[in-house]
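call fold target=Iron complex transport system permease protein
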Amino acid sequence: MISSLPPYRLIPPPLAAGFLLFIICIASLLLGAGDVTPADALPVLFGGGSDEARFIVLELRMPRTLVALVVGAALGCAGALMQTLSRNPLAEPGLLGISAGSSFAVAVMLMLGASAATLTVYVSQLGALAGCLIVLSAARIQGVGNDPIRLVLAGATLTGLLLSMTSLLLMFDQRSADEIRFWVTGSVAGRDLDDLYHLLPSLAVAIILMLIVIRPLAALSLGERAAQGLGHKPGRIRLITVLVVALLVGAATAMAGPIIFVGLVVPFIARAIAGPDIRRTLWLCLPIGPIILIVADILSRLLVSPAELPLGVLTAIIGAPVLLLVVRGKRMPAL
């Protein structure tokens, strides 16, 4: 029997998203500010090209593309986990103080003169975990630990406090102010593959824990009684999920700064395609997160060439109107 579905509906969404990601990665290597045009950069992908083109493509554009790929996937998955855990489609890592705690910890270390990438990654992850644990503890003391709305409000309060303290650091240390200011705006430029290698151990741990918790988390999304009836422990599920999110967001923040909005939009798109099941959503977050971040990075290079827009600012400018349209149109996929 011949299917009546349109041809594009016959392609599995993860496969289509993976192919689109491949095309966008190629575009990221070919496009950018400067004198190296796409025609000059294309031969480099096949082992040729001039020395200048090879330097631009292999030493500058390729590392930032790989960093954007990893950071986008980490933030996308972290957002999906957070929204499922809190059962709140507007939740993202920033709402529970995770991104703010990570940002503040790294800003403090930059003021103290830290420059080792490994140290920055671990400090960022510890800051992310500390921020989340603080808001969870505060919520539990108030007796609202299981209330997702009150939990998000507590996280928003902590986020505002930590962001204000991070801004104050710019006033007290002019020597580190420029570096902190550049990092806080968010960017994947200027990173190299050595910096990316430092993320691999913690990302490997996060992936292993995510594979362990994904099925129990899917059960928990149906309610605590349903999860307990299936033999899962809700408290343990929450703890592991928070740890995974802290590892993912901490690693992404240490590498690229606090890139906002990616962890909110990516799960929206993934759920609209795959439905509310977290197991299918995460598979789509892996390519959709990098797609959004790499496209934003390409635009940041081209819009004000030869200068460059901060990536974090651009994702906010692009993402905020999209979120408003989704909310006003009442097209938010249900959790």
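return ok
Residues 51-86 form the longest helix (36 residues). The chain has 14 helices and no strands.
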